[in-house]
Design goal:
By secondary structure, the protein is an alpha+beta fold. The chain contains 3 helices and 4 strands, in the order βαβββαα. The strands form 2 sheets. The protein has a two-stranded antiparallel ribbon. Strands 2-3 form a two-stranded antiparallel ribbon. The two termini are about 15 Å apart.
């Protein structure tokens, strides 16, 4: 098992943050993360547990890796 976050979702979220910063809007966050010095506002995406049964619907479907990359 491995953990996966869609590259597409990460890119879309990053683009939204860039637009919020560029237009001087408040950047939306959904959590804070303690970095040992402060609580840092963060936006965390839901990770997906990738297993043999869902690898085609996640990593392969998103084009991150091909079946050949994984199974050869």
């Amino acid at each position: 098992m491995t953990v996966y976050k869609s590259i597409d979702l990460i890119a879309k979220r990053a683009a939204a943050v860039v637009m919020q910063v560029a237009t001087k809007e408040t950047v939306e966050t959904n959590q804070t993360v303690d970095n040992g010095k402060a609580e840092i506002p963060s936006f965390l995406l839901e990770p997906i547990s990738v297993t043999k049964s869902n690898i085609k619907e996640t990593v392969i479907k998103d084009g991150f890796l091909s079946e050949k990359d994984i199974f050869n």
